Amino acid sequence: MKNILLSLLTLALTISLVLVLNLNFGSIPPLGKLFDPFGGFWANAESKISYKEDNLQLEGLEGKVTVVYDSLLIPHIFADNDHDLYFAQGYITALHRLWQMEFQTHFAAGRLSEIFGDIPQVLRLDRLHRRIGLPYGASNSLQMVEENPVSKAAIHAYADGVNAYINSLSDKTLPIEYKLFNYKPEKWTAQKTSLLLKYMANNLSGRDHDLESTNTLNLIGKEAFDLLFPIRDKGLDPIIPSSTKWSFDALEVSNDTLPIPGDITANVIEMPDPDNGSNNWAVSGRKTASGKPILAGDPHLGLNLPSIWFAVQLHSPGINVMGASLPGAMGVIIGFNDSIAWSVTNSRHDVRDWYKIKFRSPDKSEYFYEGEWRPTRKVINIINIRDKAPYIDTVIFTHHGPVVYDESFMPDNGKQHYALRWTAHDKSNEAYSFYLLNRARNYKEFNKALDYFVCPAQNFAFAAADGDIAMRIQGKFPLKRQGQGKFLMDGSLAQNDWQGFIPVEHNARILNPERGFVSSANQFPVDSTYPYFVYDCNFEHYRNRRINSRLSEMEAITAKNMQELQSDNFNLIAAESLPILLKHLNREKLEQKDLAYLASLESWNFSNEPMLEAPAIFNRWWSKFFNLYWDEFNNDEVQLRRPGTPQTIYLIRYDSVQTYADLKATPEVENLSDIVTQSYTAAISELEKWKLESVHELNWGNYKYTSINHLVPQLSAFSVKGVINGGGKHIVNATSARHGPSWRMVVELGDEVKAWGVYPGGQSGNPGSPFYSNFIDTWSKGKHYPLLFMKDPLEKSESLLFVQTLQNPTL
Fold first, then answer.
1. H or E segment at 615?
2. Is the model's pLDDT at 372 over the cut of 80?
3. How many other C-beta atoms can be found within 10 angstroms of the C-beta atom of residue 624?
């Protein structure tokens, strides 16, 4: 009863927020309907006693499916055939996450205005996602999915299961968000699943700095640009160890140097969080206490509720797999079966390039390419807006891809026309890749499954019960000349086109390395001996080196050791930069209040523990220093790219002239000591202000203030704020204010698979459920839950909660 009352209180508070704060997210639903005691928001309250044994009659099933729920509300789905397995997965996932599934696909499809109405920011987002080609890419990929009879059958069985749940809904049982925003779910389709995968592709490969880099190059020149933005940072520790020998003959690539357009771009489109990344590693049995391989992985994404992942076990003849699934897509994305385990990190290869397009006339019916005028293709997007006439947006397509920038979108850039070439637009069948991966038994089958994986490019860590460990960097990678894709390119020249793709068998990989482990954390994948050009603007340089250092030192490793490493809080940036800052700090210019904070920094062990004051002081100081050091790149008129942290630390350590220490906004000539001291006093002033305004003690957990927000952030009562934990950006425990480990998993292979997992949320998408956010406390403490990996639905276990039976009513 207590849980129900708390749930109702939360829901009532949210309704008050909607009414009082006037959310600007569409119309408020009819209040009589919303407050109806039988069908309104009250009907969404749940307690653990709401989950009980039942038998559901579902047309569309071929036989009987048994779903065993454990105490974490993880469903273990047992079916007699693949059709029923994926039908049941679709039904069960929708039962717990329907609104999230549909909202994310509306987001990717550019259809949020249908829900929220006439809001300029929402319309802009809808236009952006259509213009960068998410629906276009989803349609292309779906064609390939449906050309394969296996993936076609699976994706449609999943959709039928989702629709079976949708058809069972009434006004009373609609998820609460539909009631709040006064709309209803529509039929689920295979296109929606394809859109979901493009939504993830955008999250993980939808960043580039081509236009900002072009601006920066045109302002500072090539020599300075190459110094400040090296392709590889010094001290590189690549994913594939430098001792690796390549066993293939590389394709020849033209290395013609072509002119870069002199464009200056005032504004650029919004891009996903630059910290979307991950850690993964696998350790050989030679380094473990059990003599069996152990695999660990934790993808880093936005911290949201409902959670991005939904844990599930899938069992039918030929498959017994468990792990994290994406609500809206069939199969397991990161997980294990009784023979192998795998996890992924973002590979951050540059697979998006921008081309400047020259049109023949204002109607844009033709564009210039290789000395002739070619016809364009026009796509008319009708964006429906709730309670208003639709918005018509015409997008021009060239052979490069959609023209994103034009007079009607990003008009501050004048009449510049930029087309986007992106591998996410190409046909692909990741659904079949995961279908095979879920069933793989060894390294050979693992590789066969990955051959179908195109976008977003990922680093797949692998471990097998037979003792193998491996890492494969997989995606569809453009074949480019040296330096191609770093800057805007002239779209009229064929030499600027991609020259094909790197053969899939040439993608970098390693099996059973001598050092006894494989690992990746979004760093540069290979050293300079790899024969193809590899580039990205955002490779990681710190988490990976810390992980490799620890794994190199460790012996007799246990699963508990791996869980602890996932929560490692050591701040390598601080370890490499703070001694330099302290050395150049002019203490004679400090006031007493400034000196009071130095003791914390000087005694700090560089670990971002939540109760410590020093991480907060360093974080604020480094941020202020970084902004002052690179003040040359503060420009409100032009989008510029700023140098990264590795190059900053290198320059303050080794640049004897300290070229960039002088502040351009002042007549004086500052040196490094000046800006180190100035940034320190500014940081302390801000911390003092924070202490005055905050009701909390100054420590890293309070200062960082991690929050796990609902997908509609304005629904604050459906969010969990102020989660106390350590870690931070560029730290193995990569938990920042709104971003971090979204699914921590550790798997020990052997005769009996043992696995542990946790994520920052809960299995239910219903804010009125006790399973909505119940994992967060465990996750924040760096703990894991043992995962129950069942072989039979009749197994007995203390952790079982209840059983559902799904059956065709005619049987």
1. helix 614-629
2. yes
3. 21
Q: Is residue 776 part of a domain?
A: no
For the chain, what is the domain count?
A: 1
In a domain, 672, yes or no: yes
Q: Where are the alpha helices (DSSP H) in 110-232?
A: 113-116, 120-131, 134-147, 149-168, 176-181, 190-205, 210-220, 222-228
Angle between helix 443-450 and 430-439 (nearest 10): 170
* Mean of all residue pLDDT scores within the chain: 92
> Which domain range does residue 607 map to?
575-698
**What span, in angstroms and rounded, lies between the C-alpha atoms of 9 and 239?**
49
Both tokens assigned to 756: 């542990």
Q: Is the dihedral of CA 198, 200, 202, 208 positive or negative?
A: negative
What is the pTM assigned to this prediction? 0.93
In a domain, residue 304? The reply is no
pLDDT per residue over 535-545, tens digit each? Answer: 998 899 999 99
Q: Of 435, 450, 444, which Cα lies nearest the Cα of 464?
A: 444
Nearest 5°: CA angle at 683, between 681 and 688?
95
H/E element holding 563? helix 559-566
Is residue 680 one of the residues assigned to a domain? yes
| Reduced 3-state DSSP string for 762-795 | CCCCCCCCCCCCCCHHHHHCCCCEECCCCCCCCC
For residue 306, whether the previous peptide bond is cis, meaning omega lies within 30 degrees of 0, is yes
Tokens representing residue 222 in the block: 């090539």
How far is 545 from 608, CA to CA, in rounded Å? Answer: 17
Name residue, tokens 């220490």.
Answer: 661
Give the pLDDT confidence score for residue 37 in this predicted structure: 43
Per-residue HEC secondary structure of 25-70 comes to: CCCCCCHHHHCCCCCCHHHHCCCHHHCCCEEEECCCCCCEEEEEEE
Alpha-carbon span 557 to 565, nearest angstrom? 11
